[in-house]
Amino acid sequence: MQDDAIQADHLQRFIFDNAAIRGEWVQLKKTWQTVKVQREYPPAVAGLLGEMLAAAALLAETVKMSGRLVLQCRSDGPVSLLMVECTSEHTLRGLANWDGDIAEDATMQELLGEGNLAITIENIDAKQPYQGIVNVQGETIAEMLEMYFAQSEQLQTHIWLATDEQTAGGLMLQQLPDQDPEQHDENWTRINVLAETVTHEELLKLDAVSLLYRLFHEEMVRLLSTTVLEFSCTCSRQRVADTIKLLGRQEAEDIIAERGFVELACEFCNTHYQFDPVDVAGLFSDPLNIQNDSDTLH
Ligand SMILES: [Zn+2]
After folding, report:
1. Centroid of ligand 1 to alpha carbon of 94 (angstroms)
2. Measured CA distances, 252 to 157, 176, 277 (Å)
3. Do 113 and 77 fall into the same domain?
4. Predicted local confidence at residue 291, as pLDDT
5. Cα of 197 from ligand 1 centre, angstroms
6. Near ion ligand 1, which residues have CB within 5 Å?
7. What is the CATH number of the domain that holds 132?
8. Disulfide bonds, which pairs (predicted)?
9. d(Cα 31, Cα 268) in Å, to the nearest integer?
10. What residue numbers bound the domain in which 250 lies?
């Protein structure tokens, strides 16, 4: 049990007792491995996806919601879609679509070209989802997100992200409102100078306590709550049934005639859902007919 708890992916929240700044640290291993294994991602694409996954975990924790936060990047570049989501149940999933051969050292600009990143917060209590959009810009996912925060005039935010084969990790610092603006800026600058020394290696290999001590041992850091995160997919047989209904009766029957069944796979988790001719007939049956049929049984 103890081992599982230590190895579980988690996010650590912290604040500075000597500055109006809060922070989050996240490291995803099992979750990242599960997302990555669904497709044979070229390394450069996997790099972007892993960073987006860590970013979604960091951002979701800053939002009070009952629902999900989705980061979706659409572009005219070789990576046409990058999408990750983190739910209020602390589950994550994600995928990327790409075309052609991708150079191992391809940059984010080369991969994404012209495009935009949408940040959507779907709250089950809200009628309309919140959505913020930023153009693809900067050299990294972290820079692009920082530009989003700057442009949406939210609290000043600084993000560091890193990915390798095993781990997706991230660190975030965010300003909190403070009554003393001058002191506030000084604190923000000083603590960010310390944080800027963080390396990818440290983000991926050190645990939260070691990293925070390594960066901020001269400051007064207080650890707050820890959140356990895991991969989970929200797909279901019912959702696939709805998709088949959207295809329409004729198309579904054509597929049955050709293959004997309709099968769809979830793009996030690779679960295959198969519908045989009886299932498909059931999807398109008129409820009134069922009623009539059961009447005749009596
Ligand atoms: Zn799924």
Report:
1. 10
2. 49, 54, 9
3. yes
4. 45
5. 38
6. 233, 235, 266, 268-269, 271
7. 3.55.30.10
8. 233-235, 266-269
9. 12
10. 237-284
